[in-house]
Amino acid sequence: MPSAKTSSESPQAADPYRKLGAAKLFKIHELMVRARLLEERLIKMSKGGDGFFWIGGPGEEAFNVSLGLQVKKGRGVDHDFLHLHYRSSAIVLAMGAQPIDSLRQMRSVATDPYSKGRSFVNHYAIAEFNIVPVSPTIETQYSTAIGTGIAQARAKTDAVTIVNGGDAGTAEGDFHSCLVWANRPVLPLPILIIVVNNGWGISTKGETQHGERNISDWAKVFPGMPGKTINGNDVAESWGALEEALAYVRKNRKPYLLEARCSRLYGHSSSSGANRIPEADSIEILESAMTSRGIAAPSDFAKVWEREARALDEAHQQVKSEPFPEGDSAWQDVFADGLPPSYPVKGGS
Question: Which residues, 6 or more positions from 109, have their beta carbon under 8 angstroms from its beta carbon?
Fold first, then answer.
């Protein structure tokens, strides 16, 4: 009789954390800490009068850093396009953005590279990374993602469009328009459609609003469309799910719906107080996973927290010395060819 099949992988080799490897885990941890400390600093700036409004994504670091590190970064249709929302700071930091620029946008100084002091915090616009300007209107990014999806469907490339938003926003027509357009048989679109589900719509519990079991179940409407719900607080699960989803979209040039369930550690925004909420903490989960496997010691983590906090202190001091924009600069970059004659603004261009 033939012998029974045995797995060629040892239990250690099958461990998703060990598969990621120590170097990658330390890098992910560093970026998660950087993103968390940045958001906490932005909250302090808002509460201390050093900014006007805060909204961000503390609690989403495990999923968002894993996404940012897997993006095919660059400019043009041969690189991934990102249509993000205002809880995406960890994605952008993982792609190489600097925390000091978020501090600049919070303080509305002229050196803010994303909006020149004109928009509130976490509204990124980075042409060299294909990050389409973040809009404060709810979930319109799902509609604009259709455009870059069409461009990439027509181009000979493996680059994809990535769009993310929140669970409450899936009630908007923009989200469903994205699903419909991405699944048209005449031209399927290579879009990774992401919903980060933190269980709340401002102050409304998600469980009172959603008739579907999982938001990813909307994929079942479209024959053959993959949909998956994961624990977005877990680094290894997030990394693996994103790797799988991106590989599918890149190869098949068709959409994929991914729902990541994450914590919301500081509420909706500064309008709701931005106080710490006792939910699962993705950084604590990662640190526990690494120490329990002997990959790291608590002292290793302490050094990261201290180094990142010190760097933010220095960045904040620098930003506080930078100038606010002049009033006339509000008209800069509004029109490609400068202001038309019907806008008689002194000094405008």
Answer: 117, 319, 322, 323, 324, 325
